Amino acid sequence: MVLDSLSVGSDTSSNEPVTSGRGATVLVVDDEPLIRAQIAQILRELGHQAVEAESGQQALALVRRGGIDLMLLDLMMPDLSGIEVCKQVRADSATQGVRIIVISGMNAKNALEESIIAGADDFLAKPVNPLELGVRVRSILRVRDIHDDERRVEAYVRSIQEMRNQSGANNQPPT
Known about the structure:
Blueprint: H1 2-5, E1 25-29, H2 33-45, E2 49-53, H3 56-65, E3 70-74, H4 82-91, E4 99-104, H5 108-118, E5 122-125, H6 130-170
Parallel strand pairs: 1-2, 1-3, 3-4, 4-5
């Protein structure tokens, strides 16, 4: 079990979501195949679907396709840095709702500040502790769900107000 040993025993080369579990779809972005596979395996064991990307460009393409709830994003990648990916995701209205946890082995204090300024929701230092990863993912998704619920309630209240306004206009005596 990866949560205990961080060993990987399954093929994680596909970029298609894994259909086991009913959790969130999480995009794991890291140019190191072993790290990417280990994190993806932890997520699968937690009941999430893991999609993998080996570069910033590939990550952006997958996020823009839709269906990604959370991105675990390495900062240091050869083609496009995690900071730049984060900024582009936040700048696009179609993707800005994707939650982002930056994962980095860089100087944690500087990387944390830079990541949050770029729009990341949270930060994890490498090497990733499986328990901490699970807690952070659960927390970020809980906040996302609360915000989604708030938006649904607001939309419902607006629709009721519109119906009241329309029915009030229909019930007005002619002048």
